[in-house]
Amino acid sequence: MTPAKKKATTELMQQALEEEHRIREAFKDKNWSEIKSSDSWVIFKVMSEFVEGFEKMAKIGPCVTIFGSARIKPSNPYYKTAEDIAERLVQQGYGVITGGGPGIMEAGNKGARKAGGKSVGLNIYLPHEQKGNIYIDPDKLITFDYFFVRKVIFVKYSQGFIVMPGGFGTLDELSEALTLIQTKKIGRFPIVMVGKKFWAGMIDWFKQVLVEEKMISPEDLDLFNLVDTPEEAVAVIEEFYGKYLLSPNF
Question: Which of 84, 177, 221, 240 could make an SS bond with 230 (beta carbons 3.0 to 4.6 A apart)?
Fold first, then answer.
């Protein structure tokens, strides 16, 4: 076995052991003192993340969030599209928020930085050591332990969502926004899905399964816009707020 294969095998074994340990811990009986101590620490950690997020984001002004895959490389056309969208948003007066990592997130922050706008990164601690990308404004990088706290901050301080191609994390963020608007827990704001070919299968499933099975209403399909180009994406945001004679006030 080569050194590289040996290292990979060792890492897989270590991951398996850690996963088994987490599962066993979930079933382990704990006394009241252990439960109270653990839960108290989590409560205060969650509170501290909310406090930091609210304090920093309250001063930032109108922003649009760009979601998308961390795995996309700069050579991918989607990377350039996200960068272009971010640049155009800044030119229209908006700041840009991303998840703070690589891929589409990096492209969004890069475009905002290039246009001289506010570039915000809501980073998350992950097992693979996701780090904030270099295009985030130093005073606008927040790193979270908890996904649910981070999602609250995304929704509370965004005037719109641009959803680029992505995986489970992107789908989670998209579903969160759609659910909150559908259930009227938050006001309606524009959700723009970029990449008609990429999203086509899911949209067809929405129509052919969710609507047909009455899991959602036909009008729920109006909660999002599907576009292909940076120009179209930014136009949706501008048209939406233009109806209310609203514009960024940086």
Answer: 84
